[in-house]
Design brief:
369 residues, 14 helices, 10 strands, binds fructose -6-phosphate
């Protein structure tokens, strides 16, 4: 049932192009507009939403962090993303004009379930993004948008994460479409780009051998740091989480802008630091800032592992290892930038002799608070 792969995780990483395509299937019509009829919240209600709150745990939380950037940019609706376990217990402010989005692969995560129950008690509308048909979270929500990743067996989430991102983009773009935001033209262009992302993920998967080799060479390290800005920041956090849970290594994901506020003190000779670089096209300020971050850490002896767009010549001189990913719009980049980090963590775990599909102390679905 592992389809010739040594681990379910490897199989599930390889299934990502299809999972991404399947999650888009039937949701974009011939005119290039979104059709999300299954989301049974009337457009009239969606037009009145004043705030979006996303709640989730772990990897699903990282998808929600990325969704915040997309929702605020494409719809101009204020959006906050919070860990479900924190949200529930701080008496959050919500009403019938709040859309709460609960993201969960399993649909059974107790922290997320408690958060959405609390939200509904306050009168908020709850939309679930979920991979498991008929599970508790969608049953208790007002509406559900299913991700079509297929069953995810490995404890570490991979294909479910990519499809959670796709579902978040769909919801963000749909809100933009329904509300006719000033980003209307951009929304149409992005829907088109989104359709091509499965192919881009496939391209990334064909270039992973150097990443595996790099990972094997780092098997005796104690710490790996991950840096990113904007949507690259949650990608960095996801890269760190994968490494912790699979390789049992100390790993941390930082916002690159925070470096100088403390973490830069951690940089020492030969410390591996993974940096997720945004596209040099579009928001070039972001790109310039991260290039100077790479220079800063390299000047202090760090071993820089740089994930950057193909053709991005500016980062080359500062990259000890360069991992190239296809050109995509900035907001969609996490779909391709995360894949090398999954492969990296999986290979490091294997090199350290760990059980990839069943990391110690972890369960696939966390049904206690
Ligand atoms: C990490 C991982 C966990 C889950 C988290 C939420 O690889 O799998 O962090 O993402 O426990 O689970 P779901 O999405 O089922 O609510």
């Amino acid at each position: 049932e592992k389809g010739g792969y040594d681990y379910f995780m490897l199989k599930e990483i390889a299934e990502q192009p299809k999972a991404v395509a399947d999650t888009l299937l039937g949701r974009i019509d011939a005119a290039g507009e979104l059709r999300l009829d299954e989301v049974r919240i009337p457009d009239s209600v969606l037009r009145e939403i004043e705030k979006v709150v996303i709640v989730a745990c772990g990897t699903a939380f990282h998808a929600g962090m990325i969704a915040k950037y997309a929702i605020e940019h494409w719809t101009r609706i204020p959006c906050e993303t919070e860990l479900a376990s924190e949200f529930r217990y701080r008496d959050p402010i919500m009403d019938s004009r709040t859309l709460v989005i609960a993201i969960s692969q399993s649909g059974e995560t107790m922290d997320t379930l408690m958060a959405l129950r609390h939200a509904r008690e306050q009168g908020a509308k709850v939309l679930a993004i979920c991979n498991t048909n008929g599970s508790t979270i969608p049953r208790e929500s007002d509406a559900v948008l299913y991700t079509h990743a297929g069953p995810e067996v490995a404890v570490a989430s991979t294909k479910a994460f990519l499809t959670q991102l796709v579902a978040c983009y769909l919801v963000a773009l749909y809100l933009g479409q329904v509300r006719g935001t000033k980003w209307g033209d951009e929304v149409l262009a992005v829907i088109k780009e989104l359709s091509a992302m499965g192919t881009h993920v496939e391209e990334v998967l064909t270039t992973m051998e150097p990443v595996r080799e790099l990972a094997r060479g780092l098997a005796d390290k104690n710490t790996v740091l991950f840096l990113g800005r904007h949507v690259g920041y949650p990608v960095a956090m996801e890269g760190a989480l994968k490494l912790k849970e699979l390789a049992y290594m100390h790993a941390e994901g930082f916002a690159a802008g925070e470096l100088k506020h403390g973490p830069i003190a951690l940089i020492e000779e030969d410390l591996p630091v993974v940096v997720v670089v945004p596209s040099p096209r579009g928001r070039s300020v972001l790109h310039d800032k991260i290039v100077s971050n790479i220079q800063e850490i390299r000047a202090r002896g760090a071993r820089t592992i740089v994930i950057a767009e193909e053709g991005d010549a500016t980062v080359r001189p500062y990259a000890d290892h360069l991992i190239e990913i296809p050109q995509t719009p900035t907001l969609l980049q996490p779909l391709v930038a995360t894949v090398p980090l999954q492969v990296f963590a999986c290979e490091l775990a294997t090199a350290r002799g760990n059980e990839v599909d069943q990391p110690r102390n972890l369960a696939k679905s966390v049904t206690v608070e």
